[in-house]
Specification:
The protein is built from 9 helices and 5 strands. It is α/β, with parallel strands linked by helices. The chain binds thymidine-5'-diphosphate.
């Protein structure tokens, strides 16, 4: 059966990865490639429900404190459903799948940020996702200072625009983001063949051009 190509985008909140994913999707579509895009958490009917529990900052007052292990398990429940409903069928049909966040986010946010550690996340990945790994991960990782500045700016904008909704993670203190940033560094160092970190704080167009280059090279290689 033909197999597509699985690409994930990773980075801190406000890293610009969602913009870059859209630009890449547009250019691949222009080339006539079959494409499926999704984001995590979310992307399925069940996942969208999980997303609203996890991201809404009001959840803590209506549901009580969400324990780190619960947060991890919900992220993986969402992911398992997305793999079953969207990702595997698309890959089997030969499509390129572009996913906004995947297991590296769980390792960085729950493993690093919430301090559950990498091992628990990787074991959960094996159990819930049958270890399905992306073929390529674009990690947008400007310096921690630049990332924090952007995340705060975005947090303010979002609070003005949408009230407290979807801000549960974005109202965490700087230390939380420091741990996420260093966990992403650790993942990039551990898996240099899969993970391409983009560290420059360049323009949107320059970063897009860089990503297109990386993707073109990888798509030209046989999947192994
Ligand atoms: P979202 O609004 O999609 O943020 P972004 O545009 O930055 O991706 O919110 C996703 C949030 O959920 C983000 O703060 C990271 C967090 N998250 C985890 O903590 N663990 C995970 O496994 C995933 C997929 C996301």
């Amino acid at each position: 059966m033909p197999r597509g190509f699985f690409i994930t985008f990773e980075g801190l909140d406000g890293s610009g990865k969602t913009t870059q994913l859209r630009l890449l999707a547009d250019s691949l579509e222009t080339e006539g490639r079959a494409l499926v895009t999704l984001r995590q958490p979310g992307g399925t009917a069940l996942g969208d429900r999980i997303r609203s529990i996890l991201l809404d900052s009001r959840s803590e007052s209506t549901l009580g404190h969400i324990a780190p292990a619960t947060e991890m398990a919900l992220m993986f429940a969402d992911r398992a459903q997305a793999i079953h409903e969207v990702i595997l069928p698309a890959l089997s049909a030969g499509s390129i799948v572009l996913c906004d966040r995947y297991t590296d986010s769980s390792e960085a946010y729950q493993g690093g940020g919430r301090q559950l550690g990498s091992q628990r996340i990787l074991e959960m990945h094996a159990a819930a996702c049958d270890n399905l790994q992306p073929d390529l991960t674009i990690l947008l990782l400007p310096s921690l200072e630049a990332s924090l500045k952007r995340a705060r700016r975005r947090n303010q904008r979002n609070t003005q625009k949408k009230g407290a909704d979807e801000n549960r993670f974005e109202s965490e203190p700087d230390d939380f983001y420091r741990r996420i940033h260093s966990k992403y560094e650790e993942i990039a160092a551990r898996e240099p063949h899969r993970v391409f970190p983009i560290r420059e704080d360049a323009s949107i167009e320059q970063i897009h051009a860089h990503i297109r280059e990386i993707v073109a090279v990888r798509l030209a290689q046989p999947v192994g």
